[in-house]
Design brief:
The protein has a single domain, classed as Winged helix-like DNA-binding domain superfamily/Winged helix DNA-binding domain (Arc Repressor Mutant, subunit A), CATH 1.10.10. The longest helix has 15 residues. By secondary structure, it is α+β, with helices and mostly antiparallel strands. It has a two-stranded antiparallel sheet. The termini are far apart. The chain contains 6 helices and 2 strands. This is Helix-turn-helix transcriptional regulator. Pfam families: HxlR.
Amino acid sequence: MTTVPLAALPGRPCPIAAALDLVGERWALLVVREIALGATRFGAIVRGTGAPRDRIAARLKALEIAGVVTRVPYQSAPPRDEYHLTESGRALLPVLDALLTWGRTHAVAPDDPDRQVPYRTFSEPEERP
């Protein structure tokens, strides 16, 4: 797992800056969101994020190096992988919940028709009927 030496960070070095250095890029947390929602294959992650394929490939590689995701082969010819959250990646799920709550309250207009969609939380187990 990658860590960030606090002294190497610009400005005021702190754990928030270190965390953002590893997962603060927009597509990184959306990749984590997609995997948490069950999209474990590259194409599904690209579709769910809406990001260019090259950006997602770069984010997956960076997240793997950082120890947030792990790559698991599911096909050998041609080689294909699935991506899964590590313990470190699963520890980000409450962060996604906090961003969801904050975004709904502060980043989305009150009259946006999609604002009240019942978005699934990430840190609580999904309820099954």
